[in-house]
């Protein structure tokens, strides 16, 4: 399986969170929103310039800035 940044996935792609980089408030906020290791995510849509990106996680949609999505690494794969 291929490990990529969440920001590199395209609409319709699936992945599983493998790690969250960064430090401080931003990292804590991302983890608190449920983006922890092993969580499945689906890219719903991206803005024309890639910022922001909307993802589906645990039966809800979440919008992240491109900078935040670049700190989240996922294993690209199939939906579970």
Provide structural commentary.
This protein is an alpha+beta fold and 80 residues long. The chain has helices at 24-32, 66-70; strands spanning 2-5, 14-20, 40-46, 53-57, 60-64, 72-77. It has one domain (2-77): SH3 type barrels (Roll), CATH 2.30.30.90. The chain is built from two helices and six strands; from the N terminus they run ββαβββαβ. Strands 1-6-2-3-4-5 form a six-stranded antiparallel β-sheet. Strand 3 (40-46) and strand 4 (53-57) form a beta hairpin. The longest helix is centred in the middle third of the chain and has 9 residues, at 24-32. It is globular and about 30 Å long.
Key traits:
single chain; 80 residues; alpha+beta; SH3 type barrels; six-stranded antiparallel β-sheet; 2 helices; 6 strands; 18% helix; 42% strand; globular
How do the helices and strands line up, and which of them pair or pack?
Elements: E1 2-5, E2 14-20, H1 24-32, E3 40-46, E4 53-57, E5 60-64, H2 66-70, E6 72-77
Antiparallel strand pairs: 1-6, 2-3, 2-6, 3-4, 4-5
